Amino acid sequence: MTHSFPILSFEGRQTPFYYYDIALLKETLDAIQAQLKDQPTWQVHYAVKANHNPELLQQIAAAGFGADCVSGGEVQAALDAGFRAKDIVFAGVGKADWEILLGLEAGIGRFNVESAAELRVIDALAESKGVVAPVSLRVNPDIGAHTLAGITTGLAENKFGIYHGMVDDVAREALSLPHIRFCGLHFHIGSQILDLHDFAALCGRINELTERLESEGIPVGDINVGGGLGIEYGHPNSLPKADFASYFNTYKRGLLGDKPVHFELGRAIIAPCGSLITRVLFVKEGMAKRFAIVDAGMNDLVRPAMYHSMHRIENLSSDGPKTAYDVVGPCCESSDVFGKDVFLNECHRGDLLAIRSAGAYGQSMASQYNCRPLAPAYYSE
Ligand SMILES: *Cc1c(COP(=O)(O)O)cnc(C)c1O
Fold this sequence. Notes:
By secondary structure, the chain is α/β, with parallel strands linked by helices.
């Protein structure tokens, strides 16, 4: 059996729980910084919604990254973890007044504004505070992403951003409002994107739009290209880090000019660092299937039920012959399934299974459905 888990220290623990590999997180952050060495004006903001666990946020803040937030709660979590306010960017189609005020009072670096209506509210709230709000406009570039349904965000039919053909008027309005400082453009086309052509297509749209706005006398100070880089869910051991070199090279090649560029990576930073550790409660021989019934459920990790996503699953306790199991949770939903026909070393009651690559959109999306307690987290080192 080859796995990197401290199995002995797991044995006495109450399951399920999240386990985070802090060494891998640090290696990942280093790998990103190595790609940015020759780009002093480029900055990566970690997407807090991928995982807002304070221990992880502190590590990422201490490494010098910024934060990308989509709610007032996330802005507060980022501030609490030590991210500098000026390195915090705040997106979201529906920012409430208290969330905008929190950002203004903290002095965050950027509001990524998604409609003309929101722009006017921010101007009024900034006036009430006697400040000027730094704003970028989130553009809907109408670029499809080749990824799971439900996590594209950059198509005209998605709710996000200002349609690219309509951004000129909103930018002119931003320039005219006394409590708004218009800084640039923001984009984000989706998540779990492994086809880098999608990002190249985004570059094309950004270049075209920037050129058009500047020819109309609208200065575009900087560009935020969002996040969305995917990871190899099938190969957590051989490919533990995303392909950051190819990702950043796509932008180095694709973007014209030398404007500062902001990135908002979530999944690619944190997904590989986390596993959900769960125990086999029962093995059940069904009519057509053999089930491994585990003590983690869709409330702990909702991605398989919500996005039909696939996580690699490993039996940490057994060397027995590989057998196909449907790995299912205890929640009263037929969709509470972590994997169908998964080949696992023979399972027994009490075996520990690792559901890999669960660091992103795992703990942060957990709920207490079925009155189940929230799974705790443990860390390597
Ligand atoms: C979710 C989100 C991200 C991060 O997406 P990942 O796929 O996790 O990299 C970045 N920017 C915005 C605006 C988002 O909503």
